[in-house]
Amino acid sequence: MKTKYHAPLCPLCSGDDIDPFFEDENRIYLNCLNCELVFVPQRYWLSAEDEKATYDLHENDPQDRGYRQFLSRLSAPLMQRLKARQKGLDYGCGPGPTLSVLLEAHGHEVDLYDPIYYNDPSVFHNRYDFICATEVVEHLRDPKLEFAALFKVLKPGGWLGVMTKRVTDKQAFRQWHYIRDMTHICFYSQRTFEYLARRFDARLDVVANDVMLLNKN
């Protein structure tokens, strides 16, 4: 028997045209028909303590060659688009900031922000040439607010680089390892990123299946 629910508003666009998308043994997943975000209702979210405990298990070591290579899938195409000595923000950098190390090695200056490990809200008083969010946006409880905050501090002509795995279709979603992580509560398709580009007057470059670059006009 399927779970009954009262569909909430979409956490990204506040749309109210919401359909059920999928249900597994742990959660239900809803689909916004306006921006195509697939999201998990709030009652299935982990507590802040359990969420942090999950993140504490991650082993993101800046000296790990494999991890650096993984992050270079975003940093490399981003650096191809940046001028020399730009100022950026690593948003959601986690306990072992690594992307900033890669970018600083090429002469860029990078501030750090993470709501758990580097909670320094003063960064949102700055202005940035680029912002990186690697494996972050799938965790956002209020993506509408967070994306607005990021684009507010991004300079005109600046780049927002996002790394997150994208929804393709329902069949693939059912078998997707990405939804087994209980801290993942928002899932984006290409149409979702196209919505973000329209919403924030940006140009979307799809670099890879899980790497998107948004250039603010």
Description:
The chain has about 220 residues and is of the alpha/beta class. The protein has a single domain (about 20-215), classed as Vaccinia Virus protein VP39 (Rossmann fold, 3-Layer(aba) Sandwich), CATH 3.40.50. It is built from 6 helices and 10 strands, in the order E-E-E-H-H-E-H-E-E-H-E-H-E-H-E-E. The strands form 2 sheets. Strands 5-4-6-7-10-9 form a 6-stranded mixed beta sheet, with helices on both faces. Strand 9 and strand 10 form a beta hairpin. The mean pLDDT is about 95.
Give me the secondary-structure topology.
Elements lengths: L17 E6 L4 E5 L5 E2 L8 H9 L8 H17 L5 E5 L7 H6 L4 E5 L14 E7 L8 H11 E10 L6 H5 L11 E2 L2 H10 L2 E7 L2 E6 L1
Point out poorly predicted stretches.
none
- Into how many domains do the coordinates divide? 1
Helicity, as a percent range? 25-40%
By DSSP (H or I, 4+ residues per run), the number of helices equals: 6
Distance between the termini: 48 Å
CATH superfamily: Vaccinia Virus protein VP39
Return the CATH architecture: 3-Layer(aba) Sandwich
What is the SS-derived class?
Answer: alpha/beta
Q: Give, in order, the helices and strands.
A: EEEHHEHEEHEHEHEE
CATH topology: Rossmann fold
Mean pLDDT, rounded to whole units? 95
